[in-house]
Amino acid sequence: MLLTLEGLDGSGKTTAWRALRDRYPSAVFTREPTDSWYGDAVYRSIDDDNADPLAELFLYTADHADHLSRVVRPALDEGSLVVSDRYSDSRIAYQAATLADSPLADPFEYVRDLHAPFSRSPDATLFFDVDPETAAERSGETNKFERADYLRDVRAQYERLIDADPERFVRIDATQTRETVLDDVFAAVDRLR
Ligand SMILES: Nc1ncnc2c1ncn2[C@@H]1O[C@H](COP(=O)(O)OP(=O)(O)O)[C@@H](O)[C@H]1O
Ligand SMILES: Cc1cn([C@H]2C[C@H](O)[C@@H](COP(=O)(O)OP(=O)(O)O)O2)c(=O)[nH]c1=O
């Protein structure tokens, strides 16, 4: 089973991912951007305020393709529970927002269709729902994606994803205390497994 954690920067995904790792030690824990040279290339682009948004999309997508073949598919083939901190929905939500002013007619559909022929959809996704202001504050606004006005656009793209596939998503109220968020996460994962 492939479980993904999605949400704005600072929504508490990584905190939950670590807690789940302690609770389910036999599962495979992974993330995007990955810990590989493709992931390094992605982080170089994140740190470049002038990166071309389309070039950036393809860097992230290359990292995803490598992640799928090297980590995700082999682990799923062995029957493992795979938990990924960010996955394809991050691309659809974030790059649809960065590509809003590009020549693409509908960046959301473009990015989604780019993945469809080769990717593996998550079986379930926890969406850490937090307002863009709290997200920007918690993340410390350390990169170009962590500004509240941009995160507002990203959140709207996530809502579009949830509307298109409501059964896959579990919405977690990420404005609650850490303890309550983790209780909700554990309850959701226990139910899904
Ligand atoms: N429920 C919460 N309430 C307040 N602060 C939180 C909560 N969950 C996480 N944090 C803090 O917010 C920051 C971002 O959390 P993190 O888990 O790294 O988010 P993400 O992986 O979604 O960017 C960290 O400093 C973390 O300790
Ligand atoms: C995986 C992915 C991440 N991102 C962005 C979200 C983050 O701002 C940044 C790095 O991701 P990450 O390190 O997961 O940030 P955080 O822990 O703060 O959520 O890359 C995309 O724009 N597209 C993607 O496909």
UniProtKB/TrEMBL annotation:
Q: Which residues bind ATP?
A: 7-14
Q: Which GO terms describe its cellular component?
A: cytoplasm
Reactions catalysed, as given in the entry: dTMP + ATP = dTDP + ADP
| Keyword Nucleotide-binding attached | yes
Q: Which GO terms describe its biological process?
A: dTDP biosynthetic process; dTTP biosynthetic process; dUDP biosynthetic process
Q: Thymidylate kinase-like domain: which residues?
A: 5-184
Q: Which domain of life is it from?
A: Archaea
Gene Ontology MF terms in the entry: ATP binding; dTMP kinase activity
Provide the alphabetized UniProt keywords: ATP-binding, Kinase, Nucleotide biosynthesis, Nucleotide-binding, Transferase
For this protein, what is the EC number? 2.7.4.9
Tell me which InterPro entries the record gives. P-loop_NTPase, Thymidylate_kin-like_dom, Thymidylate_kinase
Q: Which family does it belong to?
A: Belongs to the thymidylate kinase family.
List the HAMAP family hit by this protein, alphabetically: Thymidylate_kinase
What name goes with this protein?
A: Probable thymidylate kinase
What organism is the protein native to? Answer: Haloplanus vescus
